[in-house]
Amino acid sequence: MTEFNYADSDTVFPTQIVTDRLKMNRTDVSDENPRELYKKLTSESAIAAKPETYPVAKPRTVMDVKNRYFDDVNNEEESVSYFIRKKRTDEIAGIFAVFPTWDCKRLETGIWLDSDYWGEGYSKERGEAVLELTFEQLDFEYVRVRTAPDNQNAQKAIEKYILENGGRKDGRVRGDLYNENTQKVSDQIYYSITKTEYVE
Fold first, then answer.
1. Which of 26, 122, 145, 182 is deepest in the core (most CB within 10 A)?
2. How far apart are the C-alpha atoms of 190 and 179, rounded to whole Å?
């Protein structure tokens, strides 16, 4: 059972999400160690996962890195992001975000998980917490996830919580994503699950 903790009655998204092995705190309210965050976001695996944002100019204050990534996130109308920490060691394992579309009651989600934590089921555990948040806390109707066609690891991770909970692979959309940094267009593979599928 996932635990959702809210700062106050006016907050739509929880301040903290706690699962069996993970503790996920909102990036705008959590008291994260900026040096630890800098080290994590400039690690080899982070650069490999998002090369279009690197190299990071140095020297920079460690808080510049946090602001660079999260200043435009955590407006509950558009997106909310969370740090993912292992409960046992309190280490940062990754970051994820959710993107609500209120009119059609849809939530999209994306994750970056440090390669040191791949293969441990953390992505599935986080994903199932997002499904529970979407359908049981927010009463949304639809969750959608996308990834690059060549990212086999992400596809396997998504399938473990989307397909295994009743969702489906919708297919490949050509030229769906434009990257402003690289000025290139790329295909995306979409997965989705509805509230009815999840309940059934």
1. 145
2. 17
Strand partners, 108: 99, 144
Q: Which amino acid is located at 192 in the chain?
A: S
Cα torsion angle, 12, 14, 83, 64, sign: positive
Tell me how far apart the alpha carbons of residues 98 and 107 are, in angstroms, rounded to a whole number: 7
Write down the pTM of the prediction.
0.81
Round to whole Å and give the CA distance between 107 and 133: 10
- 18 CB contacts (<8 Å, ≥6 apart)? 2, 3, 5, 24, 87
Query: Tokens at residue 24, please?
Result: 């996920």
Q: Are strands 92-101 and 80-86 parallel, antiparallel or unpaired?
A: antiparallel
Question: How many CB atoms lie under 10 A from the CB of residue 25?
Answer: 19
pLDDT digits (tens, 9 = 90+) for 103-154: 999 999 988 888 888 899 999 999 999 999 999 999 899 999 999 999 898 8
